[in-house]
Amino acid sequence: MEVEGCSNEAPHDVENPNTPVADSKPGSDSLSRRSPDECCIYRVPERLRDSRSKAYNPKVVSIGPFHHGNKHLEDMEEDKQRYLQYLLDRNGASLEDYEKKIKDQEEKLRGCYGNAMRLSSDQFVRIILVDTAFVIELLVRNFEDLQDDDDRIFKKRWMLTNILPDMLLLENQLPFFILKDLFDPSKVRVKNSEIGRPSIIKLSYHFFDKVVGLQKSEDQLNQPLQKSEISS
Fold first, then answer.
1. Quick one: which of 15, 18, 38, 173 could link to 111 by a disulfide (CB 3.0–4.6 Å)?
2. What are the pLDDT digits (tens) for 130-188?
3. Where are the domains of the chain?
4. Positions in the chain short of pLDDT 70
5. How far apart are CA 22 and CA 32, in angstroms?
6. What does the buried/exposed string (b/e) look like for 14-41 if buried means 16 or more CB atoms within 10 Å of the residue's CB?
7. Residue burial 158-187, b: 16+ Cβ < 10 Å; e: rest
8. pTM for this one?
């Protein structure tokens, strides 16, 4: 059985049987140059999504192009834009510099997604830039334990536990190499200089370890009291 989009043959124009097969082949410019080995972020098959859509769709924040623009995720877009500015200020970089970094790797980035995306170059570059900056700044702020009254994500800690599940979803991902490219470890404040500058992997581990701990605490608070606990 052939999976849609993976056939080795060009489809014949079935709506016009008089059209020669050779004339119905798409031009070389319209064919994807993506190698199957490059794809690492895929959409969930519809047969799975139909039965458990809530398990695959983000509820709070979109990461990457697949769910960008969904109405119920728009509230987080302002926070993501703010985090982009935080990262630019932290690194002393310009928006144009980061846009160029993304643009220079656009073909490689597009190749990481398992489904064709009908986004213009500017749209795609902007989505990847904003979301990459958001993830990096989120990890860094968590590591630094930064206190900022203007940052509602860390001011309201329950938001972290709402964001975490969305960051684990199959379709809600970024290629790891672009996180590494935009991350500057020299700009991360460390409390103990002997520890050294953290890698993006270490920041990720620290984030998930901490937020999972917060989730466990919330779950314990939400558990009904046992009779023995009430009587004591």
1. 38
2. 999 999 999 999 999 887 888 999 888 789 889 999 999 999 999 999 999 999 999 99
3. 33-218
4. 1-38, 115-116, 193-195, 214-232
5. 19
6. eeeeeeeeeeeeeeeeeeeebeeeeeeb
7. ebbbbbbebbebebbbbbeebbebbbeeee
8. 0.76
